[in-house]
């Protein structure tokens, strides 16, 4: 899952970015309202965490512009203001959730998790698809046999994206865009290597190759 974090606070921004990356979300940080608006339109983010008070233009204005252009990326608003009027205008502008500062990072993580589930049309809680269940806290997967396996950071990110998109044809470039952040070295051939590693761990039947097109997660019905 690829996230955009828009936060101009020089302490909180990098701190949240580190925590989100650690939680397996490839996270880009923007500290400016103008850049953030463009990034949110151009890059294929799965979710955006948006501060309201920003240099350039406010988070609320950015959100209104995104929604007016049919950019439906889920947005969680982050702000120091927690008055009910701000919440109402945030939701009216098209926010999916709202978190008032100060907050614990754990709370942001569970909210991100819930919003991502909802936007994928899955029920909240444990991510369980095709007999696999993903422990997102420990970044481990439980096989249908009950065996629990550890995953590396990239294996975890890739498997979570696959499990959130079962039955969908996903190209290598789509997987690359949703697993790596902006400034990382994006070589889509590496995806093949990680797909093969996941097959070795999960068994050969769960990830199907469509030659020249990409991959589909899930058993064929
Ligand atoms: Ca701010």
Number of domains: 2
The parts where pLDDT drops under 50 for at least 5 residues are none
H/E series, N to C? EHEHEHEHEHEEEEHEHHEE
Structural class: alpha/beta
Distance between the termini: 26 Å
CATH architecture of the largest domain: 3-Layer(aba) Sandwich
Instruction: Kindly report the spatial arrangement of strands forming the biggest sheet.
Output: 2-1-3-4-5
Number of strands: 12
* Radius of gyration, taken over Cα atoms and rounded to an integer in Å: 18 Å
CATH class of the largest domain: Alpha Beta
Helicity, as a percent range: 40-55%
Helices and strands in order:
Layout lengths: L1 E5 L5 H11 L3 E5 L2 H10 L4 E5 L7 H10 L6 E5 L4 H9 L4 E4 L4 H15 L7 E3 L2 E4 L4 E3 L5 E3 L2 H12 L4 E2 L1 H8 L8 H15 L4 E4 L3 E4 L4
Parallel strand pairs: 1-2, 1-3, 3-4, 4-5
Antiparallel strand pairs: 6-7, 7-8, 8-9, 10-12, 11-12
Bound molecules: calcium ion.
Describe the structure in your own words:
The chain has 221 residues and is α/β, with parallel strands linked by helices. The chain has 2 domains: 2-119, Rossmann fold (3-Layer(aba) Sandwich); 127-217, Arc Repressor Mutant, subunit A, CATH 1.10.10. The protein is built from 8 helices and 12 strands. The protein has helices spanning 12-22, 33-42, 59-68, 84-92, 105-119, 153-164, 172-179, 188-202, and strands at 2-6, 26-30, 47-51, 75-79, 97-100, 127-129, 132-135, 140-142, 148-150, 169-170, 207-210, 214-217. 33% of the residues are buried. The mean pLDDT is 92. The structure holds calcium ion. Calcium ion is lined by residues 8-9, 51, 53-54.
